[in-house]
Amino acid sequence: MIVAVCAKDMKERGTLRNNSIIFTQANNLGLLQFARTNNIGTSASSAGERSMIRRMLECGYSLGGDPAGHILFPDEAPSADGQLTGIRLLDTLKRSGKKLSELSAVIEKCPQVMLNVPIDKRFREVWKNDRAVTGIIDEFEGILGEEGRVVVREVGADPVIRIMIEGRDFTTINTMALQIADTIKERLTLTQPH
Predict the structure, then answer these.
(1) Is residue 94 part of a domain?
(2) What is the pLDDT of residue 194?
(3) pLDDT tens digit sequence for 3-59
(4) Quick one: 31 and 91 in the same domain?
(5) Closest residue by Cα to residue 40 from 63, 57, 58
(6) What is d(CA 191, CA 188) in angstroms, rounded to the nearest whole number?
(7) Is pLDDT above 70 for 192?
(8) CA dihedral 18, 99, 65, 110 (to 10 degrees)
(9) Contact 184, 161 (CB under 8 A)
(10) I need a surface site. Which of 5, 92, 145, 168 has the fewest CB within 10 A?
(11) What angle, rounded to 10 degrees, do the helices at 2-13 and 29-37 form?
């Protein structure tokens, strides 16, 4: 919400360089829909503050952020700074004369389901070529279309597949996430000896 509020303000004042923001896969789909509605470009970055800063400097962007609270204004600070973010937000509030609840209404957060499925090390990266797993992911992406998204990726030192699904209806996306998790468990976990 902070990125959306600041992006709208910066765009209106002509300070949103390249009329774009940086986001990560973990950002809520609502941010991407906000950007699309307001004709603001988006550019994806890998997770982590360093990756976002690197991408922003490469592309010449002046705003980015992730759900962990790393809000970046590279023209003013070389890294995320909570005090700077607070000052920028208060400045926007003062100029607008509106309440924060009014300003944050520019973005509608989508329901989100996130599941982690541990897998055996021997299946690391294998899931990307398993037709049962990729098939169900493709099917659900097709069903959701632009009203949702499915992000499945491997994370962590111990192999874990993280499933994140966003969409308008929580029950639907929750069912989808559980079905993907069940498919991964069936295909990519070792059966225990009896």
Answers:
(1) yes
(2) 35
(3) 899 999 999 999 998 998 888 777 778 888 888 889 998 888 777 777 888 888 888
(4) yes
(5) 63
(6) 9
(7) no
(8) -100
(9) yes
(10) 145
(11) 20
Are 33 and 89 part of one and the same domain? yes
Q: Among 78, 106, 134, which residue terminates a domain?
A: 106
Query: How far is the C-alpha of 174 from the C-alpha of 114, rounded, in Å?
Result: 9
Which residue is associated with the tokens 């037709």?
131
pTM beyond 0.90, yes or no: no
We report the CATH number of the domain holding residue 136 as 3.30.310.50
Instruction: For strands 41-45 and 20-24, give the pairing.
Output: parallel
Average pLDDT (55-64) is: 87
Q: CA torsion, points 173, 177, 178, 182, in degrees to nearest 10? A: 150
Identify the domain boundary among 106, 125, 145: 106
- How far apart CA 57 and CA 78 sit, in angstroms, is 10
CA–CA dist 184, 161 (Å, integer): 8
- Give a yes or no: residue 193 inside a domain: no
Say if CB 66 and CB 79 are below 8 A apart: no
Q: What type of residue sits at position 37?
A: T
Cα dist. 171→26, 30, 126, 139, 155 in Å? Answer: 20, 18, 29, 17, 25
